[in-house]
TrEMBL record:
Residues 348-362 have a biased composition (Acidic residues). This is Anaphase-promoting complex subunit 4 WD40 domain-containing protein. SUPFAM superfamilies: WD40 repeat-like (SSF50978). It comes from Psilocybe cyanescens. Keywords: Repeat, WD repeat. InterPro entries: WD40/YVTN_repeat-like_dom_sf, WD40_repeat_dom_sf, WD40_rpt, WDR89. WD repeats lie at residues 68-114, 309-343. Residues 1-28, 331-387 are annotated as: Disordered. The keyword Repeat applies.
Length: 387
């Protein structure tokens, strides 16, 4: 039998959608969609260079509402936050290679807040916001010997309030602030990943960067995405990470890796089921939802829950699970923004019908789940997700 961490079980309740509920294309017509986020009534999608715009589309009709200018040289991340600068309001925020983090005002089709590093323009590759909206963090591209995490108080956006330059030694590709303050220290905790292969947690409120780092894990490969797993119990994985080598891992005291064609992203929230859903893609444009059957067991197998096929041609680069509306939103190198139905996975679907896993487990042949690449109207894209 194959090694257990390479075993993919097929759920007895596996479902497959053969076409999206609705579809539209980017306003650029030829740009890739690299980022998607969900607002109350709209979806926002960022386009690749040289366009760099952010399209706002109606959730119900997918009709374009407006197009924001994005960032010069490239829009690198896109988020929805519920608090900003001490005000409880929904905001769209983005980072860019122009060295700024922008909070967008859809009424004026421009930004209402622009955070910069006065006198020093470094490309920003990622950003995130603390739950109270009073701390904004961004990670820079390596410039010379420095790759920094910049922190702003958005009420004073002209210059960062602190800079941590010793956490990572290469491009800082991904950041995630914890959804609540640390109960022991009452501080904001930042999770960061970098091209240097390190996954770190640090105190985002600490001015002395030598005292800021809390934990460091060395994955040994370039890290492209990281995130928290809410409600993780003691001994189970509390952090997930993805690499530029299209591998995925969960972290606590142990780590394990599962290899696929390419990883799109992972989704985890207090209400999601599975608690940690891993979305992977095929080079033909199909999408799968996987989950690990027990993240506290290093060699636990993975389970295939759902498939979404024939909606994209080529690599899928962005995905959002809109739990409230039971909707999956996907965007890819074909420039399409697709809406798919998605319901929470039945908790029992992680269980094998046969108690003897060696007899009952089924190893899915990846070839049987692949469709022929549609050459007509397709664009050959590279497998790597990040520019």
């Amino acid at each position: 039998m194959a090694e257990r961490h390479r075993l993919l079980l097929e759920s007895p309740r596996l479902t497959e959608e053969f076409s999206p509920s609705r579809t539209t294309t980017s306003s650029t017509t030829s740009g890739y969609i690299l980022g998607i986020t969900s607002l109350s009534s709209f979806y926002a999608a960022s386009a690749s260079a040289p366009f760099n715009v952010i399209d706002i589309v109606d959730k119900t009709t997918l009709r374009g509402v407006q197009t924001l200018p994005g960032h010069e040289n490239g829009t690198t991340s896109l988020h929805t936050v519920q608090n900003m600068a001490g005000s409880a309001k929904e905001c769209l925020i983005s980072s860019g290679k122009d060295g700024s983090v922008k909070v967008w005002d859809e009424r004026s089709n421009s930004h209402s807040i622009k955070m910069t590093n006065l006198g020093k323009r470094q490309a920003l590759l990622c950003c995130d916001v603390s739950p109270d909206g009073l701390t904004v963090a961004a990670g820079t591209e390596l410039q010379g010997d420095d790759a920094s995490i910049l922190y702003w108080d958005p009420r004073q956006p002209a210059t960062p309030v602190r800079t941590h330059s010793s956490t990572h030694s290469d491009d800082i590709t991904t950041l995630s602030l914890a959804a609540s303050r640390d109960p022991t220290t009452n501080t904001n905790i930042l999770l960061s990943g970098s091209t240097d292969g390190l996954i770190s947690t640090s105190n985002a409120d600490e001015d002395d960067e030598d005292e800021a780092v809390i934990q460091v894990g060395n994955w040994g490969c370039s890290v492209s995405q990281v995130g928290w797993i809410p409600g993780a119990s003691s001994g189970s994985a509390g952090i997930w990470a993805a690499s530029d080598m299209e591998t995925f891992s969960t972290w606590q005291s142990e780590r394990r890796t599962w290899v696929t064609d390419y990883l799109i992203t992972a989704h985890s929230s207090n209400t999601s089921n599975p608690k940690l859903g891993v979305f992977t893609g095929s080079n033909e444009g199909d999408i799968a939802l996987l989950s690990n059957m027990n993240t506290s067991v290093p060699d636990a197998p993975w389970c295939l829950h759902k498939l979404w096929t024939h909606g994209h041609v080529g690599v899928v680069r962005a995905l959002v699970w809109d739990e409230q509306n039971e909707t999956l939103v996907t965007g890819g190198e074909d420039g399409k923004l697709n809406i798919w139905p998605i319901k929470p996975v039945d908790p029992d679907s992680n269980e094998s019908d046969d108690e003897d896993e060696e007899d009952g487990a089924m190893e899915v042949d990846p070839k049987s789940r692949k469709r022929e690449y549609e050459e007509e109207g397709s664009r050959k894209g590279k497998k790597a997700r990040r520019q």
